[in-house]
Design goal:
This protein is of the alpha/beta class and about 350 residues long. It folds into two domains: about 240 residues, 3-Layer(aba) Sandwich (QueA-like), CATH 3.40.1780; about 80 residues, QueA-like (Thrombin, subunit H). Helices cover about 20% and strands about 30% of the residues. The chain is built from eight helices and 17 strands. The strands form three sheets. The chain has a nine-stranded mixed beta sheet, covered by helices on one side. It has a six-stranded antiparallel beta sheet with strand order 5-6-7-10-9-8, with helices on one face. Helix 7 packs across helix 8.
Length: about 350
């Protein structure tokens, strides 16, 4: 499909720069086949049924943005995919000036060496620290990797908590699974009383999620791979929910992509531990997920393509137009929508 089919006009003032407080006070647009309804996130127990299952992404965002020095020149680095204990693929600015073998100083006793460059523009760095020591160095020297449309990507101390979900456990993401940012302990307790179950999977969201689509047709776009784990317990919970007639609700596009990556043709989920570069566009046949809770995404982005595949392009264009017109807040710190999968979008 043509990329411009996924374009829309978004006034800059609709882009949220900080989250609301409490988190579950954010607005929620209910997107059904029969129309739209304005709600708030804390209404979720009324919108879901006993026996439904919410699937959360428990990845934890690393302070993955670093400022380094090479030959007295400043280099901005954002990690995006782990290679091994010491090495990551990164995006660097200015990346073209870096050469294999170059060393970048990131702090006292903390350096990185360029070991590979790819034509796509990303760079493999080997850090002087590895494993837990590398994560500790990131906590000391790094900042939270806010997307560029939030305060120019410049994070402050409050973002260390704001840009982390209640479920964050498995360190490795460089972007938050933002739909889950809306949940509070009080909301989870209300969902439990309602009889709604929860489970977690892990997809380490990469910085590739921020990259613009630079081609004219979806067939020519190459997704960046992200590492995911769907454990046995989550597979069993999803399969049991489907057998019992409950609905599987993916909390965020990251959870949805991982579930779909782990599903066979019949929709049965199998344990999964691998990278996925699944690119979902209209025409994709969904196997397992019945509903999607998702924030509002960038024009012409792979994430808007995904929600358009899930609910139909015209329906999501109408939903986004309503959101813009009625003051919904967009992107990572913004509001969200709860979307039914429509049969015509399978």
């Amino acid at each position: 499909m043509r990329i411009d089919a996924f374009d829309f006009i978004l006034p800059p003032e609709r882009i949220a720069q900080r989250p609301v407080s409490p988190r579950d006070a954010a607005r929620l647009l209910r997107v059904r086949a029969l129309g739209l309804e304005d709600r708030v996130v804390r209404d979720l127990p009324d919108l879901l049924n006993p026996g439904d299952l919410l699937v959360f992404n428990d990845t934890k965002v690393l302070p993955a943005r670093l400022i380094g020095i090479r030959d007295a020149a400043r280099v901005s680095i954002t990690l995006h995919l782990r290679i091994d204990e010491n090495s990551w693929w990164v995006f660097a600015k200015p990346g073209k000036r870096l050469r294999v073998g170059d060393s970048v100083t990131l702090g006292p006793g903390f350096t990185a060496t360029v070991v590979e460059k790819r034509p796509e523009g990303d760079i493999a760095l080997r850090f002087s620290a590895g494993g837990a020591a590398l994560f500790e160095a990131l906590q000391h020297h790094g900042t939270m990797p806010l997307p560029p449309y939030i305060r120019g990507g410049v994070a402050d101390e409050s973002d260390r908590a704001d840009y982390q979900t209640l479920f964050a456990r498995a360190e490795g993401a460089v972007a938050a699974p933002t739909a889950a940012l809306h949940f509070t302990p009080e909301l989870l307790a209300a969902l439990e009383r309602r009889g709604v179950a929860t489970t977690t999977v892990t997809l380490h969201v990469g910085a590739g999620t921020f990259l613009p689509v630079k081609v004219d047709d979806t067939d020519d776009h190459v997704m960046h791979a992200e590492y995911g784990i769907l454990p046995v317990a989550a597979a069993e919970a999803i399969n049991a929910t489907r057998r019992a007639g409950g609905r599987v609700i993916a909390v965020g596009t990251t959870s949805l992509r991982l579930i779909e990556s782990a599903a066979d043709a019949a929709g049965t989920i199998h344990p999964f531990a691998d990278t996925t570069a699944l690119f979902i566009t209209p025409g994709y046949r969904f196997k397992t997920v019945d509903m999607l809770l998702s924030n509002f995404h960038l024009p012409r982005s792979t994430l808007f393509m995904l929600v358009s595949a899930f609910a139909g392009l015209e329906r999501m264009q109408a939903a986004y137009a309503h959101a813009v017109a009625t003051g919904y807040r967009f992107y990572s710190y913004g509001d969200c929508c709860l979307i039914d999968r429509v049969e015509t979008a399978q």
